[in-house]
Design goal:
There is one protein chain. This protein has 430 residues and is α/β, with parallel strands linked by helices. It is built from 18 helices and 15 strands. The protein has a 6-stranded mixed beta sheet, with helices on both faces. Strand 2, helix 3 and strand 3 form a beta-alpha-beta unit. It is globular.
Length: 430
C-alpha cells in the first residue's frame, strides 16, 4: 500500500480534505487524487445502526462526505443492517449487544434524517447520495457458498495479526466467532458496492484500516484478469480534545445529533464550552469558516477567542439544526449565562406532578445536572444551584407548581446546566 501524501493535490476535493483536517492516510493517495481530478468518484462510508442517532464523534466522516459531495463526488452511506447483527469488534472490549430487525429499521430511518441535513439524497443530481442497507445483500448469502467464494481469500494468520483482533486476544477478552467474521463481511460490502455501483473508494476512522484494506484485497482477487479492479481506502483522524478525551463525549454522555436527544441549545453549549486549545482545529474541521478568518480569530486570546468560540457554536449548530435554531440557541445562551431575567429562549422542561424536591429536580432524567443524588446534595449545599437567580442550599427544598409562574422557574445548576422548569399534572397511573 502506498500511503504517501502529495504536497499539492490536483483535485480540489482532496485539497480541501487536507486543508480541513479530514485526512490521515490512504492506500494510494496519488491514485485517489488522479481519479478525483478526472471525474466523479463514488465512495462509501458505513455505520452500524447501534443507536437511533449518530453523534459528534461521527462528524468528521460526515463533514468529509459533505466536502466530497460538494466537489462533485457521489457518497454511498451504508447502514449496516446486516453487519449490525454481527457487531464490529473494532475498539470494543466486550461483545456488542445484537440488534433486532425492528431496532435496526427504526435506527436506519432516524440516521437518514440526520444525514439529510449535510447531504443531498433526492435532488436529481448525478451525485445524489445513496443510503443502502447491507442486509439487502448479506441476508441473501448462503453460508457454505460464502465460505467457498469469499472465505478462501482470507487467512486466519493475517486476520489475528490485525490490531482489532490482537488487542482482544492479548487481553484475554472473549472474541466470538460471530465477531471474527466481521472483517470478511465488511470486505464483501466493498466488493458488492464495487460491482453494483462502481464504488472505488471507502473511507472511515483509522480503527477501520485493517477491514478496509481487506476489502481492497478482496476486490483485486475477485476481479477477472484484464478488468479494472482499482479500489482504494482513506482514513480520517479519530479526533480527541486537547486533554485527550474522545470528541463528542461529555460528563452527561454522548453529544447526539438527534435534536430529541440533545437539543440545539445543549448542542450549542457543547461547542461554545470547548477548550481554548481546540478552537482553531474545531473551526477548521466542523465549519466552513475560511482558514484565513480562523487564523485571524484565534491568533490571540481573551475576547477574540471567546468570539471565535461563539462563531464555532453558531456555525456548527446551524449546519446540523438550521440557522433559525442556531440563532435561538445563541439567544438562549446569552440569556442563560448573562444577567438577564428574560429567559424566553431558554429550553422549557415540564415535569409531571405538583411539587418536587430540589435534589430530585436536578437529578431528574430531563435535567440530569449531576451524576448522582449524593453529588447533587453536595453541590446544592455548596451553593451551585440557583432558582430564579437565588442560591438554594437545602437539598430538600420543595419546588411547587405555583413557583414556576407562566414562563417557568429559572434553574441554574453548576456551570453549564440552564433550564426553565414547569410542573404540570401528574401522569395518569398505569
Amino acid at each position: 500500500m502506498n500511503s504517501t501524501t502529495p504536497q499539492s493535490p490536483r483535485s480540489p476535493a482532496l485539497q480541501r480534505m487536507l486543508e480541513r483536517g479530514y485526512y490521515e492516510q490512504a492506500s494510494d493517495f496519488e491514485a485517489i487524487d488522479a481519479a478525483m481530478a478526472g471525474g466523479m468518484v463514488t465512495f462509501y462510508v458505513g455505520y452500524d445502526p447501534t443507536a437511533s442517532s449518530l453523534h459528534v464523534g461521527h462528524l468528521v466522516q460526515i463533514m468529509a462526505m459533505r466536502t466530497l459531495q460538494r466537489a462533485g463526488h457521489r457518497p454511498i452511506v451504508i447502514v449496516g443492517g446486516g453487519t449490525g447483527m454481527v457487531g464490529d469488534p473494532s475498539g470494543k472490549t466486550e461483545t456488542r449487544k445484537l440488534l433486532t430487525e425492528d431496532d435496526i429499521a427504526a435506527n436506519v430511518a432516524a440516521i437518514r434524517a440526520q444525514l439529510s441535513t449535510f447531504l443531498h439524497f433526492d435532488s436529481g443530481a448525478n451525485n445524489d447520495a445513496l443510503m443502502l442497507n447491507n442486509a439487502d445483500w448479506l441476508l441473501q448469502l448462503r453460508y457454505i457458498e460464502f465460505l467457498r467464494d469469499i472465505g478462501r481469500h482470507f487467512t486466519v494468520n493475517r486476520m489475528i495479526a490485525a490490531k482489532t483482533y490482537r488487542d482482544r486476544l492479548d487481553a484475554e477478552i472473549p472474541l466470538s466467532f460471530l465477531e471474527f467474521n466481521y472483517q470478511l463481511i465488511q470486505a464483501y460490502d466493498f466488493l458488492h458496492l464495487f460491482r453494483a455501483h462502481g464504488c472505488t473508494l471507502q473511507f472511515g476512522g483509522s480503527d477501520q484500516w485493517g477491514n478496509m484494506v481487506a476489502g481492497i484485497e478482496l476486490i483485486r482477487r475477485m476481479t477477472p484478469e484484464g478488468q479494472p479492479n482499482t479500489a482504494h481506502c482513506l482514513t480520517l483522524p479519530l479526533l480527541t480534545t486537547a486533554d485527550g478525551k474522545k470528541m463528542g463525549k461529555t460528563e452527561r454522555g454522548a453529544v447526539w445529533l438527534d435534536p430529541a436527544r440533545v437539543a440545539p441549545f445543549d448542542y450549542y453549549q457543547f461547542w461554545i464550552g470547548c477548550d481554548d486549545r481546540d478552537v482553531a482545529r474545531l473551526l477548521r474541521t466542523f465549519t466552513d469558516v475560511p482558514i484565513a478568518e480562523i487564523e485571524a480569530m484565534t491568533a490571540t486570546g481573551g475576547a477574540a477567542l471567546n468570539a471565535a468560540k461563539a462563531r464555532l457554536a453558531r456555525e456548527a449548530t446551524a449546519l446540523l439544526h438550521g440557522q433559525e435554531a442556531a440563532d435561538m440557541a445563541r439567544r438562549a445562551s446569552e440569556q442563560a449565562f448573562g444577567n438577564s431575567e428574560d429567559w424566553s429562549a431558554v429550553p422549557l422542561v415540564t415535569l409531571a406532578g405538583p411539587e418536587i424536591k430540589l435534589v430530585d429536580l436536578v437529578t431528574h432524567p430531563e435535567i440530569d445536572a449531576f451524576k448522582s443524588k449524593r453529588e447533587a446534595r453536595e453541590r446544592i449545599a455548596a451553593g451551585a444551584v440557583k432558582l430564579n437567580g437565588e442560591p438554594v442550599t437545602d437539598a430538600n427544598h420543595l419546588v411547587v407548581a405555583t413557583m414556576c409562574g407562566d414562563h417557568g422557574l429559572r434553574l441554574q445548576a453548576g456551570k453549564k446546566c440552564r433550564f426553565r422548569v414547569a410542573l404540570g399534572p401528574a401522569e395518569p397511573a398505569a
